[in-house]
Amino acid sequence: MPFPLGAAYALVALGFVLVLNATTAVNFAHGESVVAGGFTAVALTFFLPPDLRIPGLILLPGVVVVTAVLGLAIGALAYLPIRNRPPVSVFVTTIAVGMIVANGLNATFGAAPRTAPPLIGVGTIDLIGVSISRQSLVIIATACVLIGGLAIVLQRTQLGRQFRACSQDPEMARAIGIRLTRITLLSFALGTAFAGAAGLLLAHQFFISPADGAPLILKAYIAVVIGGWGSLRGAALGALLIAVFEVGVAAISSQPLAEGLLYVIVLVVLFLRPQGLLGEPQQVRA
Amino acid sequence: MSQPSLHVESLTVSHGAVTALRDVTFTARSGEITALIGTNGAGKSSLLRAIIGLASSKGDIFFQGDNINHLATEDRIRAGLALVPEGRRVFPGMTVEENLLVGGIRGRAERRLSIDEVYALFPPLADRPSDRAWQLSGGQQQMLAIGRALMARPRIFLLDEPSLGLSPRIARDVAESLKALTEKGAAVVIAEQNSGFVQPIADRTLTLSNGQMALPD
After folding, report:
1. What residues make up the domain containing A78?
2. Which end of chain B, C or N, has fewer beta carbons within 10 A?
3. pTM of the model as a whole
4. What's the gap in Å between the CA of A197 and the closest CA on chain B?
């Protein structure tokens, strides 16, 4: 079933776009932030009484807080000091932060894949005659709640309007009184918290290891390219399509073939619709 | 004579090796429109950007008697300054109402009050609150840019080429709305190439030429 994977990918891609829109720079530590979320869940498990069988979903607030703080650190250390330099500088600093996180996790937990506790029990439930695993349902439901919450914040609140204003014209945003540095740091915190939440959702069903960051940032990047650069809805759609494609092709052939064909699809989309599926050419009038 | 609202003293702005503005001094007063006339490249935009804090400068800027050199742009807006930049620079992907709301820097109730006042001043905006800003005509975008600045309830307005690209009728409407602002006690500074736009409404006219004030205040 591709939807749980798609839901987790969507969280990763949305977090990626939040930072991208706030900074116009790619945060290459985003994949490691997903991994950090998974390992935060693994670490927090040590504090749960083993015989109480507490659902792993209870770890979500802790994971979100820890990864939000990680996001603040990435923004403050790897972006703000060099924000006026060419974007390639931010590529290098965020890659460096990603390497530090990955190697730190490797040194602390080891290289082997780890698993977090099940999100809410195990087994399956029957839904309209279809048997679905509890894990899959909870992953989808949690992602929907987080994405819905983000949509409400962005569309209905002053903070959301400030996020969008900064992404469209940062200098003008400052000129109407928006504190750009604060919005930038909040974007890193929120985007990285989304990545961390995805890490928790992935960590039980799909396992997580310190080296998983690179493939995850690539998936987020591809989702954003397919969906439309900078489009939040496009990122979610792109992530879902990637998961459907990966799971579907892997089911009838193999995972390596699915991965390879995914990049062919990216090239086709870029050739036929460079702005992505939901991206729009620049709209300017008068 | 009305109170000095803004006083700029010996302001110099440089962009790398190029000096865009040299030793400029002038005063804008509450309830008055001060026009800064100059050709393209005279330094008008650099002056307004320096006053708002978007361009670094040397010299002193006083707002209602207080030196604001040390304030960041965001804090100058909170203190009571507002800029309507050249080219309007509304947020194209946001609706008219969202563009206005995001300009409000105080609480929700005050934002609601301010938006009603903007709609009263610019009725064409009230007819299209859900339209994206990029869908508006040039004149409506200019109204939106002015309205967005109004949302912060500023005491001094800095406008850069507000008549650019507007039809004579729309330009006249915009000019009347600016005059109405001064009647409420605001100080308005308009940087313009088009002297025909500002002279009928300006209380004082200053000329910038090659980065220097040709007629000192």
Report:
1. 3-209
2. N
3. 0.89
4. 29
